[in-house]
Specification:
Blueprint lengths: L11 E8 L2 H12 L2 E5 L7 E6 L2 E8 L2 H5 L5 E7 L3 H10 L3 E9 L3 E7 L5 E7 L14 E7 L3 H12 L2 E7 L2 E8 L2 E7 L9 E6 L4 H10 L18
Parallel strand pairs: 1-4, 5-8, 9-12
Antiparallel strand pairs: 1-5, 2-3, 3-4, 6-7, 7-8, 9-13, 10-11, 11-12
Helix pairs in contact: 3-4
Length: 240
């Protein structure tokens, strides 16, 4: 199994879901990915739900607060990138053209984090691990396999993430669509592309691996999921 005991700085390492109905989400993803769950106490009074595969941490889940919902925040997945020093990384954000959405904070003994936005407004979490490294299992069914930025400002985003995380942008043609891979030490760690239509706000997108895409879509439909895009073949997928 592709287990992890650490993530190199600059690597997307964790994802979690903020949802107004964690119970329904837990049931849905248990069927879709085979996730099992444990609950961790938090300072907010509502538990943080840890989703596991084979006993290894795969993703997180938390209650979307009424205040967040009242401000128009939809249920959403967040991407976390490991950094060696979250204070130093956060100090780089403004100089690189981004915005600090939430300053550095301690997450109990799990680690330290900050929430930032790139020049086009896509939100990303910076994570300095303590007891929690992030995902302990990746690239297999029901676990994180890729993180992708949808933004009309790929060039500005590339410059921002190079300053913040050391990512180098490499752009290639994928069946008529320009796709940018963010490279770290010669390997692809994330991607970026323009949205398929105007008006879609910049945001980070999360991919989970599945053994059979068609079967996963059928399972999602059968348990109340909505299919935003049918299964499709990607002409060129993957960087070193």
């Amino acid at each position: 199994m592709p287990e992890r005991t650490e993530h190199a700085p600059g690597t997307p390492s964790w994802v979690d879901l903020a949802t107004p109905d964690p119970s329904a989400a837990r049931s849905f993803y248990a069927r879709l990915f085979g996730w099992e769950y444990t609950e961790e106490p938090t300072d907010q009074g509502t538990p943080y739900v840890m989703a596991t595969r084979h006993g290894k941490a795969a993703a997180g889940m938390m209650q979307l607060s009424p205040e967040m919902a009242a401000q128009g925040m939809p249920p959403m997945w967040s991407t976390y990138v490991t950094v060696a020093d979250v204070e130093a990384a956060t100090a780089t954000v403004g100089r690189a053209g981004g915005t600090v959405v939430a300053p550095v904070m301690d997450v109990m003994e799990a680690g330290r984090m900050a929430v930032v936005a790139d020049p086009a407004g896509a939100v990303l979490c910076l994570w300095q691990p303590g007891q929690h490294i992030g995902a302990e299992l990746v690239h297999e069914h029901g676990t994180l396999t890729w993180n992708e930025l949808l933004t009309p400002e790929v060039g500005k985003a590339s410059a921002f993430y190079e300053q913040l995380l050391g990512w180098k942008a490499e752009t290639a043609d994928m069946g008529g669509t320009e796709y940018t891979a963010f490279m770290l030490d010669g390997r692809g760690v994330a991607g970026a592309m323009k949205p398929p239509m105007e008006g879609i706000p910049s945001h980070w997108f999360v991919y989970c691996a599945v053994d059979d895409c068609d079967d996963a879509v059928a399972t999602a439909r059968a348990h109340g999921g909505t299919i935003q895009a049918e299964p499709m073949d990607i002409p060129r997928a993957g960087w070193p």
